[in-house]
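Most newcomers find our protein records easier to grasp once they have seen one. Each record describes a single protein and holds just a pair of labelled lines. A learned vocabulary of local backbone shapes supplies the integers on the structure line. Nothing more is needed to start thinking about how sequence determines fold. The record below serves as our worked example for the rest of this section.
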Amino acid sequence: MKLLVTTGMANASIDLAAAARAGVTVCGTTGSGVSTAELAWALILACRRHVVTEDRALREGRWQTTVGFDLAGATLGVLGLGRLGSKVARVGQAFDMRVIAWSQNLTAAQATSAGATLVTKEGLLAAADVLTVHLKLSDRTRGLIGAPELAAMKPSAVLINTSRGPIVDEAALATALTAGTIAGAGLDVYDTEPLPLGNPLRGAPNTVLTPHLGYVTDATYRAWYEQIVENIAAWQAGTPLRVLTPSAG
């Protein structure tokens, strides 16, 4: 093997250091940059207005079985205010939500530039009506939202994760949902994918579960396939593009 091309600019399944030692060039691709942020809002709206529950109830012959929650005036808590988190924050403003944010290295100026207010982690958990996760998975973020953090959230709050599954403790989340510690969750990512049939999240109440669809759009796929061909041609020409290195991974 001399060249390995992956979709996206990060892939936890690839040992970039081992590839470098073996002389294998690893190249990535960039997507639309908006698809995951858009899916986060699809999950937020589905959870807050019980879209899946009402769709199922209507098909079964029932009518208006739940009471939803307005977004206007509610607090959007953004955990990680990078490229995607900032896009989600701006949409929250359009819904007339109060937007707050926290991550370990986030500054007040960075938060303000995205239309958010910097708060502490504790303040984020306590105030958010919707808590949406937009962090990269690392040793620092793995299990960042566990049982203590879920217990600190409002019983009426919903958790949205379109980032990486292991950032949220799945077992603790399933327990919190069953106990009613939080009101619901919209999830697109999981510890193990595809989600195993016996995973407790499948039976947890008040959930909207999607099969890692954040990147699955026509525009993203078109960009990826074009860039894969570009990467191969550039490597053959001796000028590889979008090279992933151990430090970047």
User: Anything to note?
Assistant: The chain is about 35% helix and 15% strand.
